[in-house]
Specification:
By secondary structure, the protein is α/β, with parallel strands linked by helices. It is built from 14 helices and 17 strands. The longest helix has 20 residues.
Length: about 450
């Protein structure tokens, strides 16, 4: 039986243009840019310097803070310099720039295609290996995976939930990964189950991927404790709290984490990366990226090394159309526009979407007509019209009082607004400011 979350949600056009496009590995360019800030936490600290010789997979920056993740060289070569380079935010950030010289890998990394099913590592060893290999959440949030696996002593995990929903329009990387790497993903799921000491895992997949559901069901029949849950197509089904509600009918309290209701959620791409880390000793130095758009001549799913400039991916997808009006890092609902194709692929880059000038135009903005649609579609039960006004008028007290920090920034409110109001923009501003206020209050 198909399940879904009950509160809110919308149905944007799917536009899965790169669906069923086989994953294509693209050769790393001559110059690689590795930003130090690639996780939802403190930036990594570089341990290399100009002139250092590197091998592919070699540690180049340590995640020294509790919430941080290490970085490894995506290529073999020489460190040209550590300098600033533009990233997806549009700002220049500290970056390790590497000149590629061949592709010599660190010893101990298993590059064979052989499937290794037997898991010999203990729970503690799994968590340490995941940390050492710099694994982060590949759904876009980039929260360090090892931190998620460290269950507080006063909590107990009951379910591992794997997010294979990929509810964002256009994106197809996770879908194709399931079709091509199902066995490896399932071993990765078992590794995650062992890490958090649970015997039940649920892989949630939306029903617009029937081939993935069928394939993963077939593969999962050989793995104990793992079930495949088909889900109704509704955005934002892939959000943690909505996915938990759909799969196990539990509601995460306001301001709390999934472990409060006995759940740990990981992305399906993360499960594959965990498999490679634990069974193959391979750090996270590459990922699948959907490059897509209505006018792209060759919508594709690329396997790209971290640090590869977006320009190379666009070139491999047939080039950037002349009428391109906007380039989005991610999907159209939660992704953010970028101002340069020189930015590099990072661990959190799930897709690059090109919109033409007409599609990229914002709707004409009118006064709010109090229709209530934004409230109806909000999956968190908030009042986006009020939060948007609070952000627009810099009223942080009202924003905090009305639970702006519970917003998951899915964009459903702005998508459905008949007055074209920039609700998500104003709410994001409000969340940033209120978050600052709360942190300062704790200090």
């Amino acid at each position: 039986m198909l399940k879904t979350f009950k509160l809110g949600g919308v149905h944007p056009a799917e536009n899965k243009l790169s669906e069923h496009k086989a994953i294509e590995a693209i050769e790393a360019p001559e110059k690689i840019y590795v930003p130090l800030g690639q996780n939802l936490g403190a930036p990594s600290v570089a341990i290399v310097q100009k002139g250092d010789k590197l091998k592919t997979g070699q540690l180049i920056a340590k995640g020294e803070a509790f919430i941080s993740a290490s970085l490894h060289s995506p290529v073999s070569g020489t460190v040209e310099k550590i300098d600033t380079h533009v990233d997806a935010s549009g700002y220049r950030r500290d970056t390790i720039i590497i000149n590629r010289e061949g592709d010599e890998w660190e010893e101990g990394i298993d590059l064979s295609k052989d499937l290794i099913k037997e898991i010999t590592a203990s729970s503690e060893e799994i968590i340490e290996k995941v940390k050492a290999c710099g694994i982060v959440g590949l759904g876009g949030a980039t929260f360090p995976t090892h931190v998620k696996l460290m269950i507080p002593k006063d909590k107990k995990a009951e379910y591992l939930i794997i997010n294979a929903v990929e509810c964002e329009p256009y994106l197809t990387a996770d879908h194709q990964l399931m079709l091509e790497k199902g066995d490896e993903i399932l071993v990765g799921v078992q590794i995650l189950m062992k890490a958090i000491k649970v015997d039940k895992a649920i892989i949630g997949i939306e029903n617009n991927k029937p081939d993935a559901i069928e394939h993963m069901n077939k593969v999962a029949s050989n793995f104990a404790g793992i079930t495949i849950q088909g889900l109704k197509v509704k955005y934002p089904q892939g959000a943690e709290k909505q996915l938990i509600k759909a799969c196990v009918n539990r509601e995460v309290p306001s301001g709390k984490l999934p472990i409060e209701v006995g759940c740990v959620v990981q992305n399906v791409g993360t499960a594959f990366a965990v498999y490679e880390a634990v069974q193959k000793n391979k750090p996270l130095i590459e990922r699948i990226v959907s490059v897509t758009g209505k006018n792209i001549s060759k919508p594709s799913n690329f396997q790209a090394r971290v640090g590869t400039p977006i320009s190379l991916l666009l070139e491999k997808a047939g080039g950037m159309p002349e009428d391109t009006g906007k380039i989005i890092n991610g999907g159209p609902m939660m992704g953010k526009a970028i101002n340069s194709i020189d930015i590099p692929v990072t661990k959190g880059c799930s897709g690059i979407l090109l919109m033409d000038k007409k599609e990229a135009l914002r709707a004409t903005e009118y006064n709010c007509v109090r229709c209530g649609r934004c409230t109806t579609v909000c999956p968190m039960g908030l009042e986006p019209f009020l939060l948007g006004l609070a952000g627009e008028n810099l009223n942080w007290e009202i924003a905090e009082k009305e639970n702006i920090m519970d917003c998951i920034e899915c964009g459903s409110c702005q998508f459905t607004c008949p007055s074209g109001r920039p609700l998500l923009d104003n709410i994001r501003l409000g969340k940033y400011k209120v978050g600052q206020i709360i942190r300062n209050r704790k200090n």
